Amino acid sequence: MESGMKTEMFEELLREFHRIPFDERQARLARWCDLDPQELQILKGVNALPVETAEHFIENVIGVFPIPMGVATYFNIDGRDVFIPMAVEETSIIAAVSATAKWVRKSGGHITTGSRGNLIIGQIQIPFAKDIESSVQSLTAVRNRLMDEANAIVPGLVARGGGVRDLVFRALPREDGTGTMLVIHVMCDPCDAMGANLINQVCEGLKPSIEAVTGEKVGLCILSNLTDGKLAYARVEIPGVDAETGKGIVEATQFAKTDPYRAATHNKGVLNGIDPILIATGNDWRAVEAGVHSFASRNGSYQPVTDWKFENGTLTGEFLAPLAVGTVGGVTMLHPTARLALKIMGVQNAEGLARIAAAAGLVQNLGALKALATVGIVKGHMRLHAANLAIAAGAREEELPRLKEELSSVLSKEKRISLTRAKEILEVLRANTAN
Ligand code: MEV
Q1: Which end of the chain, C or N, has fewer beta carbons within 10 A?
Q2: Is 368 in the pocket of ligand 1 (CB under 6 A)?
Q3: CATH class of 67-116+229-374
Q4: What is the pLDDT of residues 177-189, one digit of tens each?
């Protein structure tokens, strides 16, 4: 199909997507992503993660934990229309990112992505190096032999085209002032794996040789989550943005660059777009969080991981941070729903997944800043939260639409709603129905 026609079909599938009944929504997704009835059942939770499979993942399994999974809509990334699966409990995230992606699309904007490097880092620490210079000299002399040895520990990875590419030696004055640490960085291409298990095996496997070559005692052997040798990049450019919005978003970024208290929330908004994708694909979101936050602090002060510029009516945003994800290894391929999430995105490899996550994070951040710089966040959040309040107030399925409607009208009049208010309104509605 020609790309213009394909986009037309995609936009047709998205029409009223959040309003149509669940089955119709699934049917439209199935059409675009070529999902079969059994896969749709998995998305409904049937064998989404069988307990027998869960038993292999962790110890002491007592069940599985369901969480809503939705898709972010209206994304066109690097010229490809894509549904982005997100598993998340926060009410406003998918609504906000989809509305913002729609705004980008309808404004004639473009989202492009890329990556910088493909090397993860393993650390081998010598806590008290007696003679740094001579240790580094001895290690440098046998660098190639050590790398061969390292690669022999992970033959499968080498066969897939990955493996250890470099050893970097770092002398660090100890924080407690008692000497110098020597830290060896093992730089490794993990191909499509997140790579934690691989690199940990390599580091521990190299320990005896490092001790023999240096005559020093090795301490910790473990990967670093500050994966700055493997960064994901996303860029969005939107023409014809009004000055109030454009300047407001730039000013909001300035706030985050100036104040770490704001930068933390700014980056939380970015991660709102990333973590749900990691969860949906069975990735280690704690590792990514650690990587993003440490990268944000790399210059000594905690900074935003996105940047926004506004020139001649064009708003441009950029995201750059480590997103160490995998599409093989870990649980991704063993978890039926995670496997499906990759299929929905049409993702071929880890780099593709990281790039989609980077784009979603950037657009999520745009949505938050756009709201904050104009109407504020409460209106949109609380409108969506009304549904949660209605359920929490104890409304039965048939009472929900009416109560949500009432809550929305209270919200627009009084600018706030609460659980107490929801309960009061429910009582009134029930009394009126009884009369
Ligand atoms: C809420 O989950 C995320 C925001 O606080 C992000 C931000 O302030 O940029 C809205």
Answers
A1: C
A2: yes
A3: alpha beta
A4: 999 999 999 999 9
Tell me, what DSSP letter sits at residue 193? B
- DSSP label of 399: G
- Quick check: 2 pLDDT over 80? no
pLDDT digits (tens, 9 = 90+) for 267-286: 999 999 999 999 999 999 99
pLDDT at 168: 98
**Active-site choice (39, 284, 351, 406):** 284
Strand 80-87: give its sheet, edge to edge: 80-87, 69-77, 110-116, 231-238, 314-322, 306-311
How far is it, in rounded angstroms, from Cα 343 to Cα 282? 13
Is residue 175 part of the annotated active site? The answer reads: no
* Per-residue burial over 268-291, b = 16 or more CB atoms within 10 Å of its CB, e = otherwise: ebbbbbbbbbbbbbbbbbebbbbb
Task: Enumerate the domain spans of the chain.
Answer: 67-116+229-374, 120-224, 379-434
Highest CATH level, class, for 379-434:
mainly alpha
For residues 214 and 136, what is the distance between their CA atoms, to the nearest angstrom? 8
- pTM as predicted: 0.93
Tell which residue, 323, 335, 328, has the closest CA to residue 360.
Answer: 323
In this prediction, residue 329 has a pLDDT band, given cuts at 50, 70 and 90, of confident
Give the number of C-alpha atoms closer than 13 A to the C-alpha of residue 425, restricted to the C-beta side: 26
Cβ neighbours, 10 Å, residue 100: 26
Structure tokens at 280: 């949906």
The finding on whether 272 has its CB within 6 A of some atom of ligand 1 is yes
- Dist. CA 58–CA 65, nearest whole Å: 13
Mutate which of 86, 90, 249, 372 for ligand 1 pocket (most atoms within 8 A of beta carbon): 372
**Tens of pLDDT along 367-413?**
999 999 998 888 777 777 788 888 889 999 899 889 888 888 888 88
* Site of tokens 């049917």: 27
Place of tokens 């991660």: 271
Is-catalytic flag, 406?
no
Atom of ligand 1 nearest to the CA of 269: 6
Task: Return d(Cα 297, Cα 219) in angstroms, integer.
Answer: 26
- In short, whether 380's Cβ falls inside 6 Å of ligand 1 is no
Q: Which CATH architecture has domain 120-224?
A: 2-Layer Sandwich (3.30)
